[in-house]
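Below is the data:
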Amino acid sequence: MVRNIDERHSFSPALRVGAKIISFIFHPLFVPLYIAWFLIHELRLFNDRTDWQRTVIFIQFFIYYTFFPMMTTLLSKALGFVQSVYLRTQKDRILPYIVCEIFYFWGWYVFKNVHFPKEVVMFALGVFLACSLGLILNSFMKISMHTLSLGVVCAFLLLASAMSSFVFGIYISIGFFVAGLTATARLIDSNHTQREIYFGFFAGAIAEVIAFFFV
């Protein structure tokens, strides 16, 4: 059953603060950086590169998935295109979705054409497709961007495990735990409904599955 706004405000202040912290740590702007770190330092996909080259790859992830989207939102707010940097309404989310699609497509295109490992290309394409799907669904509901990004992550970990001899068990468990924790935090500290939370997660997962078949 979907809770109403009054029920959401019944949570204790301490619980709401905890939910805010979790929502910040696993914000969609930061999630790709965690995956970049995982790809570089745990999967060791770039062991043939120097330390500096691996750092540059991480910086690329930061630019495509954190810096540009963040600056887009801040500039949109400064120019009056959105009411809040928190993108609380469906209308506020339209422009950031469209602009981020450009950055995410660019990231995928670059990674593909510099012949990065297929896991990197698959993740990048999944992010782009998830953003595109999020834009479409935004016409019908304000799906959770947090769970949209974590749906991509969970599906990516499952699919990447099928492509590699690397043991993903603990990381898949962590991914789903973080997804559940963040979904709960968004229910506590946002005006999202359960439907918007679930649709976000499954939309992200579907986008990554589509990327898997393309890659």
